[in-house]
Amino acid sequence: MPCLRNILNPHSVAVIGASDSVVKFGGRVMSFLIKHGFSGQIVPINPASEQICGLKAYAAIGAAPGPIDVALIALPARAVPAAIRECGEAGVRGCVILSADFAEAGDEGATRQREVVDIARRYGLRIIGPNCLGFINPGLRLALTSSVALAAEPMPAGGIGLISQSGSLMASLISHAQDTGAGFSVAVSVGNQADLEVCDFIEYFIDDPVTRAICVYVEGLKDGRRFLDLADRCRDAGKPLLVVNAGRSEAGARITQSHTASLAGSSEVWAAACRQHAIVLLDDPEALIYCAHFLIRFGPPSGNGVAALSPSGGTIAITADRLAAAHLRLADLSPTTSSALHDIVPTGRPLNPLDIGGLARERGLSAARRAYELLASDDDTAALLIVVATTPELDAKVRAWAELALAMGKPTAVLFPPGALVDRARSILRELQCPYTNRMDDALRVLNAAIGYGTALRAPRDAPIAPINPARVAEFGAPSSALTETEAKELLDTVSISTARAQIAMSEADAAVIAGAIGYPVVLKLSSRTITHKSDVGGVHLNLRDEQALRSAWHDVQSRGTALTSPEKLECAVQPMIVGGTEMIVGTKWDPQFGATVLVGAGGIWAETLRDSQVALAPVTTRQALDLLQRLRMWPLLAGSRGRGAADIDTLVEVVVRTSWLAATLGPRLQELDINPLLVKSRGEGAIALDARATLLPLQL
Amino acid sequence: MPCLRNILNPHSVAVIGASDSVVKFGGRVMSFLIKHGFSGQIVPINPASEQICGLKAYAAIGAAPGPIDVALIALPARAVPAAIRECGEAGVRGCVILSADFAEAGDEGATRQREVVDIARRYGLRIIGPNCLGFINPGLRLALTSSVALAAEPMPAGGIGLISQSGSLMASLISHAQDTGAGFSVAVSVGNQADLEVCDFIEYFIDDPVTRAICVYVEGLKDGRRFLDLADRCRDAGKPLLVVNAGRSEAGARITQSHTASLAGSSEVWAAACRQHAIVLLDDPEALIYCAHFLIRFGPPSGNGVAALSPSGGTIAITADRLAAAHLRLADLSPTTSSALHDIVPTGRPLNPLDIGGLARERGLSAARRAYELLASDDDTAALLIVVATTPELDAKVRAWAELALAMGKPTAVLFPPGALVDRARSILRELQCPYTNRMDDALRVLNAAIGYGTALRAPRDAPIAPINPARVAEFGAPSSALTETEAKELLDTVSISTARAQIAMSEADAAVIAGAIGYPVVLKLSSRTITHKSDVGGVHLNLRDEQALRSAWHDVQSRGTALTSPEKLECAVQPMIVGGTEMIVGTKWDPQFGATVLVGAGGIWAETLRDSQVALAPVTTRQALDLLQRLRMWPLLAGSRGRGAADIDTLVEVVVRTSWLAATLGPRLQELDINPLLVKSRGEGAIALDARATLLPLQL
Predict the structure, then answer these.
(1) How many CB atoms lie within 10 A of CB B82?
(2) A259–chain B nearest CA distance, Å
(3) pTM of this prediction?
(4) Least CB-CB distance to A317: which of B175, B256, B320?
(5) ipTM entry
(6) CATH architecture, range B501-576
(7) Cβ–Cβ < 8 Å for B85, B73
């Protein structure tokens, strides 16, 4: 993105709509440009003034001396198209449009946005925004934004590249970085992403030598697959990519739609995409900065064992509870470490987390230092948590710990207690550029994010190999998008997944003949293209032991089905009653943002109730499929426990892999597919799809 | 507790071990007493000085002019018993012992602690500590503590009564209150609770007119039932009781044992006890102060609908997601509220949570005010969340919101963004004594705590009525504590819970005769007093369809059982195979802290895997039992869904109630009981205990 390098690192900036009044957008922009000391050329544009903020102003961009690298536009929306045209004519390379009332504000705004983009394209001019707050480049002392957050000085410079779809969040994260000692290479608010979008900036940051971690607040991606490809490039470049995505809840999704006209994706799919591509997914914007700062200073932890210490016994008990609740594993200290620690603290005191309170005064500081060194040197300690408490010699201890952590390169989260009493200690850490947090929640987020990132980096990246014949899958079609059960099972045949075949009965007598032939007990199911959730309407009768039961079930299904659809007689399917095994669900869904996905979970009557399921982007490897199973709450039931033998996990894994390839091969044609239940038998005995439903769009001929 | 009133509100305090040096405990205590301006008499005791901190010092407490209300002891542990004796002789009413090396430090310390208590009892002298940090009474400007937290001034005065088993946590919460504008009636650190314990202070605070909310950090209760009785008195007095209990995790429990010699209780039982007694249970100490401050200023919300607003669109999208993740319900605004809000914000914009950003400048402040009024006046809004963002006119908006919230008496959580830019707004809220938080996690904790407290207050307090014959239960006994399945089912008979009776077979032939008589299919189970988890060892064979299957099962059980216990032949039980229904577990456990408890959850093979269970203190009412069921994840399966009819919930509730009475009646004799599975059939068809095991201590004759 060479154009972005010019726009984000300009030699000259123009402000269209510049003003002397800081209550106006263009006035605040001017005041921040001057106040923060941008060393390049600043060109105010305003037809009504000859001079603004002491600088010569021009009536139009065309009248100003060129070249102008970037022009910020702070005009009412209706004036923007003309301004863009003038910029284009004047050879400006990039425009930052602060103005709102574009795609986020309905049809008229959307039309105006398209117009602006069309004009810009004609001139090869790139746009940030509209409906954004601009950007800052602290290295250049450049604040090209109207955000009041820039009233504070200096701008925090550092290695974080920040991309925010919300202007005010960018502003609040700049304030947050100022508070905590973190800093930015560039922080940019992308607004409606009419032209330049989140991914363009990620690409810039990957190539930018100053940027060491990339933070993104996103309400909706324009191109999910490009985002994931860039995530892989971030991983290869050793630059952690950290994301907060809004719109995970129903109410949140309504807001992102209204706010920046973004369609939020499914939160489960987001989580799966991030897990598979080593993206650090967070729920809180400020945590982006905490975690990025931590990863920049320490790099990813080499394992997942955590050691913790505090000079307060009460605090350390709470710390133990909170670490457990956050599913962080306490490092298992070696006998060597333990016996050395017992030279410092009384025997009988637990060693991890370690309470170093109540040690004799003369040994306080040296014991604090020694305790850190011992914990940090243990082979199982991948990261540390220091919970500071207001004790004597606080500042000296905090300095000693931070210096040791940085010297040893051991990822260490420092958590401060509340209060002005530790302000001095906080400033010591800012001077050392050692990250810290003020709340346990954030310390735990930092540890989990860093450990999770390290784990994702170490995960094997085996290339998925298709165990199916893609051509056979791709040519599959059905008369209608809503597949019948029989058609759905035929679709499973194309990837060699075993199914319990049902035979269609057109009449009661027909059903009795079929059942007699296959042998009781049998299952009778409504067979309909329109009623796909058969169980919900009482359209499934299990375990029919004889003909009388079958006939009675036939009548029941007919009366229920008829009430729901048409007065005509309905078809039913008869299949053998197969029992013994674990009922699972395996499914796929096309995600508009990230594409094909696969799901596996507890099936049958438990599927909807327990929601014990896991999702991944498709296709998955055998290893990934097994990983999905192991993350289910019901995993112990599959693995065998409580007197139950293990289920046929190998076959289940294979079904998940094949289903994922089915989804990946059919792409957006396969809107969704549910195998439910998939009956998984004992080890070595296979698995069989008892029921299936699918929505498959027609073949494009 | 009249004695506590004297000790916590003294006219005269002595410091035994007083010093001029602030690196010594007794020196810091003296310096804080003087610095904070305690208006009563301060009496330094030190045999080596004539004057300390400018005050006349005495060689011994007996030499000082009396009466002394409270003496603080800052001496090495070995000197404490003699000091206590001297205090007793001198007529001192209470002693605060800072010294450590008592019960928390092993056997020798425990002996010393008993000695100190014995001496004190002889003189009617009460003790706070040992191993504590003393207390503060800001109303009297009295800081009787050595904590360096008291270096900051002034002490925060207010309506919170704080009791902490950790001294350094008390100190950090004093700093936290200073930061946030909250304050204390008294904050006390109770240490080892050798004499005065947490409950004594709760009792004091209930009667203390200045105290309006009571916060407790506890590592272990000395008397769980007394604590719950006092919780009920807090509820009656309208004073919320807020608790953080440490030792919820295994590692945390090891630490509390080592730190203050406390045995932590089960975290599930703690949660149940708090829910049943309107105690606000929190996971974070600082949250105690946030939540107490909020409840003092606003009282409990009248419902559970939450409305939120922010001037930042990105922030409001995140807010919606976080509220959903915290299981807070968005208020469902009335059409009247909605149409009035649409006079302020563009149509199409979601109204709750409400983004009031981008409104025309001239209407900014009035729109912000009006939006709050409309949201707060809606019938379904019980509490509000304001997420402040750095926008123009920030201070005026924040002041307007806070004044409206306090005037309307509407519980409103204000969340500030990071950064020094909002420091002025923060100080406005402190002046108004309007609570606020700086992190979303804390805002959500406050809302959940307040709404949960309000809900608990409104919960009906119907008195439980025993549906059983307690005498019949109480006289039940068995030959050994480990009951056989048959004995456990006899125990269930005493409270009229239906059981599937098994008949004991002494031989293979015997088993065949029994099975023939009751009819196939049958179940064959190992019957043993020593092997109580039969399934785990393969000792249960289900669904035996004929004699051949039965005989083969007999041999399998014999070989497995023999391998585990003795070379002799084992007994087996034969019972009818009963199918169709939902398998549940209902159980009891004696909790050393809170007494009898009852549990209900998913049973059978799912019991251990899903851990979908709920616990309550026993006995429970019908309403409470139903509430437990409704909190299970599997509740939809019981209530009927996905084509399944409802289970016999009435009978299940009755079984839970009767089991809870069994536990309550037998008390500590019934160590534990598991009915698993309890097969719950369709509505109207009952429930039957298929298996049961119990540990019942012998009758005390």
Answers:
(1) 11
(2) 6
(3) 0.93
(4) B256
(5) 0.92
(6) 2-Layer Sandwich (3.30)
(7) no
